Structures are given as structure tokens and as C-alpha cells.
TrEMBL record:
A divalent metal cation binds at D8, D9, N97. Residues 3-186 form the Survival protein SurE-like phosphatase/nucleotidase domain. It comes from Oceanotoga teriensis. Binds 1 divalent metal cation per subunit. Its cofactor is a divalent metal cation. GO terms for cellular component: cytoplasm. This is 5'-nucleotidase SurE. The keyword Nucleotide-binding applies. Its EC number is 3.1.3.5.
Amino acid sequence: MNILLTNDDGIKSEGIKILAEKISKYHDIYICAPEKENTGMSGALTFSDSIKIKKFSLDCGEKDSYYVTGTPADSVIMGLDHVYKNIKFDIVLSGINDEPNIGDDIRYSGTVGAAFEAAFSGYPSIALSLEYGNTKYYNSIINILIKILNTKHIPKGTILNINSPNKPDYQIKGVKYVKLGRRRYSNRIRQKNKDEYIIYGDLIEEKNDSNTDNYYIQKDYITITPLKIDNTDYNFLKNNK
């Protein structure tokens, strides 16, 4: 299987290196990722400036690797349409991100944004993220990914958003296929200096139902949420014909 690998933490991040090293034992890995961290960029594209691209070997078992001076979505387009345009890819992987992408947070996530760009480009895709923590436990999420790649068919237009507790294998209780929960913030504006502000909120305690990613990741389950590129509200459409 030919796999395009990208992320939003930058090509030098630990998550993409571990993912390339593990998955390259079973599949052909080609990397096209941002040069630097692009957290919060969602599916943004670089229209106002030119994008540079440079070969950059990670030496993690990949067939080839490049970085781009742009966003995660830029990296996907560059990889599919330019750098590896002669390669027929089977799937695009984005991650492994060093913080969770669950609930409302997927709106901002560069990791999920890259996976959506792949889906809009006609490729099945998977976004992979870990819960917070200084020490990172990657084995469980990688093992689930390998199983999915070997056994699951992901339709075009579908993105699997996978989140894992940042814990050793023996503490992971299982895997749940669930819907998105809610993840909202208060006090979202913080003053840094006299004329400088940052956006960084306090997480609001939500009463999520028991079939959401937010609920089960707190219960030490890996969560898998299938997402679609079609955001149409069909109930509203049906009632307003």
C-alpha cells in the first residue's frame, strides 16, 4: 500500500517519526509535511505567498520525504499533485498529533484539516491524535491503525478521526466507534502585554452523552469517529423544499 504521511506539528516532530518508522514495516511511506508547527491552522491554504519545498530525510523507513513552508493542507496538495504526482496513493495519514482532536476542536485542528484536504482530493484519510502528556505512549494507537489498514475499507469522502488516551497499552480499555462530542471554551481572550492578546480558553465542563469521543477518551478508550466532507443539513433541506 502506498501511503502519504503528513501532520501539523512539523516534519521534525516525534509523532510523525514514530508513525513512519512503525508503518513503513508494512507499507510504502511517502512524507510531505510542514516545515514548522501549524497548530490551529485547520484546512487553511497559502494563497498570499509562495510555498517552498525541500527534500528532508527523516531516515525512519520512508521511501521519500519533503517539507513545505506552508500549512498541513498545503502539504497534502503538494504531495498529491506535485512531489509524488506519479504515485498512486491508497490513503493519506495525518499525525500523530501531540494533543487530542475531539469534539468541537476538530474545527481548528491542522491534523484533521489535512485529512479533510485529502478527502476533498478524493482519497480516504485518517487523522491520529494522542491525549496530553509529557511522555508519549504511541503503541496502542499505532496498533489500531495497523488493524484498520489491514481490515477496513474507508470510502472516499470519509475521514476517520482517531484519538487515544496517552497511556500504556495495559491501561487502554478498548476501542469505541463514536460520534463527536462538545468541547467548548470560556475566557477565550488573554492579555499578554499592553497591546497584545492571545486566544486560549478554559475548557467548559460538558455533559456529553455516552456515545461521544469526549466521553470515552476520559474513560480510557481509544475513540474512532467517522467524519464526512458533506456538511449539508438534510433535515433543514427536506423541510424547506
